[in-house]
Amino acid sequence: STSFSTIAMEGKVGWGPKWQHVPMAPVDPILGVAVAYNADSSPNKINLGIGAYRDASGKPIVLKCIKEAEKKIANDPAMNKEYLPVQGLDPFLKVTSQVIFGKQSKALAEKRVAVVQSLSGTGALRIAAEFISMYAPGKPCVYISNPSWGNHHNIFRKAGLKTVTYRYLNPQMGLDIEGMLADLAAAAIGSVFVLHTVAHNPTGVDPTPEQWKRVADVCEKKRAIIIFDTAYQGYATGDLDKDAYAVRYFSDERGLELMVTQSYSKNFGLYGERIGALNVACADEETAVKVRSQLNGIVRPMYSNPQLHGARLVAGVLSDERLSAMWQQELTDMSQRIVDMRSALVGSLNRIGCPPPSAKFSSWNHITSQIGMFAFTGLSPQHCDQLTKKHHIYCTRNGRFSMAGVTPSNVDYVANAMKDVITSA
Amino acid sequence: ADLRSTLVTTNSKKMSRWSHVTEAPPDPILGVSVAFKADTDASKVNLGIGAYRDENGKPWVLGCVKEADKMIDAELQAGKIDLEYLPVQGYQPFLDLTSEVILGKESKALKEKRVAVVQSLSGTGALRVAAEFIKMYAPNTVVYCSDPTWGNHFTIFGKAGLETRKYRYLTKKMTLDIDGLLEDLKAAPEGATFVLHTVAHNPSGVDPTQDQWKEISKVAIAKKAICIFDTAYQGYASGNLDKDAWSVRYFADELGLEIMVTQSYSKNFGLYGERIGALNIVTSDASTVPKIRSQLNGIIRPMISNPQLHGARLVATVLNDAKLTKQWNEELKIMSDRIVTMRTSLRDALVKLGCQPPSTVFPDWNHIVDQIGMFAFTGLQAKHVDILTTKHHIYCTKNGRFSMAGVNPGNVEKIAAAMKDALDTAGPSDS
Questions:
Q1: B230 and B291 housed in the same domain
Q2: Which part of the chain is the Aminotransferase class I/classII large domain (chain A) (predicted)?
Q3: What is the distance, to the nearest Å, from the Cα of residue B228 to the centroid of all Cα atoms in its chain?
Q4: How many domains does chain B have?
């Protein structure tokens, strides 16, 4: 007799292919760079695309403090693989908020911070977005800097929220503080403002303390829901406390409720282990308890409970004085290498007489004044395309260079390539 | 509501903008573990969560996993591997192996490259990604889940914005209500989504026979249904991975149907907290696969960006090593055998005590032995469970579901005695 599969394939039984209408998704602009880079067989290729640290020989590193924490875990006979609670690993939760809020945090002392473990920064933002979508009255608009990390818009939209942009950069790559404040001041009451705690991605331009004060003023006036996206704490200046200034100013000095997402991808080099946290600093402890329960209610139908390994590593380092000190030193070293490469690149560009990328710039000094992992070079999409086509240098088309991809041995090659594409254009 | 006035009243520095947020009720399954942890009684027993325990009641990290952990640590210390981001779809060596576990070495779908697969945070993560994909590309579907089922099913599909309904599953005697099941699925609208449990149905432990699966497949075909096979216990039910995969392979290979299969390695690898699983979408046409996969990635990117390394490395390390894979199969058999032994022990202990079945609907306690997988759906009800918990410090979900892995030679008599006490005190289960 004829089998079902034959009948089905002949279309006689209406089981029908279901997914023919599914289109190919566009390539993610940031991740697509890594894919293209990997496919390139040129020996000269350089990856300035993704924000992952590389040492002076261009190799990824695993921090020493992490290797030690790993060894401890691997050799601990008491370690099992049981489910974590929905909110995450308790020893991790106990230390993570203090990293960003600080030892003197009033919010922590008063137990007003609801915290859950998350899959790094993305996971924390998504949980925050879903929480806001559920509990903020009137489904507020989400204000995101222009430019920002591209995934910001996707995350909030997936949670059913509308996103709009606020001005951020002036044509000379400085902070357009008046534009920023004007756009935020024009927002509806109760809007969501997404702020970058430090080392703004992609521009590397941060508000000064005086400018943060003015931002806090408008946040207060607008009763804004404030989200501090913290992906580079310790990475910008090498100093965890210094890099946390904005969050602590808003929370401690201004007493504002805020949400803080943390990623340990860059500052702990734990990219692939996906470890971070969402902190919601509330006005009182009772609210924090209720908020935490609802954050758990969001996690449960997303992935039930978070994963062990990354949380164990971070907790293992932060609960050990020697390893914490080791971590701080390694953070300083990483951020210093980035700073050195900024200087090296600008030095090289000046030496070969490379003109600035456009008439807006009088020099290459924006590269050394920007902070964090990225240099927002000012190169155009067309320049970037040529950098890739002719010189096998990969970066995002907004001219953003991951400075960790620059090394003493490739910096001159990069500078020469930049001169070539600028002068050929 | 006047947004402005709401916010004006919450402007005072003392009053939180989130003060209207209510405390969520504890998750019915996870809440059991929380309550168990808080109990200080020395003889307490946790029959709540579906996590394996050895005969001393201790969690068991499989030997093959311990070995894989050592190997991975050695490579990390030696600088042979790093902690860089995975691609959005996950760890490729894991992806290369995982679909074969469920679809089998002889899978036509795999040979013809008709399977889109992504790494997921275990079964929950796979279901959520599937739900979001279905919401995007089959938004008018209605999702049918068995009654009873794992409670989180409804929450997951609900979160993705999909309508959910139930299909009958169990008779009062705890056997498969195949007539009710088929009737409810036949009444479903065309293009409905059927959530099926591949093997070892949670919570009932009652699975369709092969003939019953064939009947279900006919309805699925007639309804052009999207079939999701939730696979959380492969290898756990019979101790044999291939045997436990029969339903999936029948639908995918023999019938050549497009199906979705979620995999969890939480139970069968004991990797609960490492959150490792996969979503497989089997299509009729290989050209659809890259498109589907790109959209799955588009769902993952704004959720978690990319999945985590460790659990994927562990599974891939074992499955890539013949010796470790053999060890895994042996350890799977040990776990499932112990569960089967405990089913028999509990039934025997109840009989020895002269404990009446939970109601007149049950001729005896044999349903505990007949059910397969991790859970026994005892037939006890909330009123019994309350007594079990408050009087005897025995924890389980209110629907009378026992995680049999929590039963061991040291506590089986106590459990049986407590069940008898509960039935004597509260009377039989209501029909």
A1: yes
A2: 44-417
A3: 13
A4: 2
B309 and B335: one domain?
no
Mean pLDDT of chain A: 94
Neighbours of A122 (CB within 10 A): 27
Q: Do B303 and A255 touch (CB under 8 A)?
A: no
Joined together, the tokens standing for residue A30 give 């940031």
Say which amino acid occupies B356: Q
Examine the fold and report which residue of B320, B339, B355 is the final residue of a domain before the chain moves on.
B320
Scanning A139-158 for CB atoms below 8 A from B yields: 151, 154-155, 157-158
Write the DSSP symbol of residue A262.
E
CATH for the stretch A29-61+325-424? 3.90.1150.10
The type of residue at B90 is G
**Cross-chain CB nearest to A308 (options B18, B124, B273):** B273
**Residue B8 domain-assigned?**
no
Is B19 a domain residue?
Answer: no
CATH number at residue B351: 3.90.1150.10
End-of-domain residue from the set B320, B339, B356 = B320
Q: Which two tokens stand for residue B87?
A: 């691609």
In 3-state terms, chain A is what percent helix, strand and coil (to 5)? 45, 10, 40
Residue with tokens 């210093």, as numbered in its chain? A336
Which chain A residue has its CA at the smallest distance from B252's CA?
A5
* CATH at residue B290: 3.40.640.10
In angstroms, the separation between the Cα of residue B182 and the nearest Cα of chain A is 17
Chain B CB contacts of A291 below 8 Å: 18, 21
H/E run at residue B144: strand B142-147
Find chain B residues with C-beta within 8 A of A311's C-beta.
none
Report the gap between the CA of A347 and the closest CA in chain B (Å): 30
Instruction: Report yes or no: A28 at the B interface, CB cutoff 8 Å.
Output: yes
Out of B34, B274, B297, whose CB is closest to A81? B274
pLDDT in tens, B126-176: 999 999 999 999 999 999 999 999 999 999 999 999 999 999 999 988 899
CATH, range A66-319: 3.40.640.10
Closest CA relative to residue B269, chosen from B310, B238, B230, B314: B314
Find which of A274, A291, A312 to mutate to test the B interface (most B CBs within 10 Å of its CB). A274
Q: How far is CA A57 from CA A60, A410, B77, B241, B307, in A?
A: 9, 9, 19, 46, 27
Confidence of residue B7 (pLDDT cuts 50, 70, 90): very low
pLDDT, tens digit (0-9, with 9 covering 90-100), for A331-342: 999 999 999 999
Question: What gap in Å lies between CA A129 and CA B289, rounded to an integer?
Answer: 30
Best mutation target among B5, B17, B155 (most A Cβ atoms within 10 Å) is B17
The CA–CA distances, whole Å, from B269 to B67, B78, B236, B314 equal: 13, 26, 10, 9
The reported pTM is 0.94
Residues B223 and B305 in one domain: yes
- Please check whether residues B295 and B403 belong to one and the same domain: no
Structural domain contains residue B153: yes
Chain-chain contact of A67 with B288 (C-beta, under 8 angstroms): no
Phi, psi of A130 (to 5 degrees): -70, -35
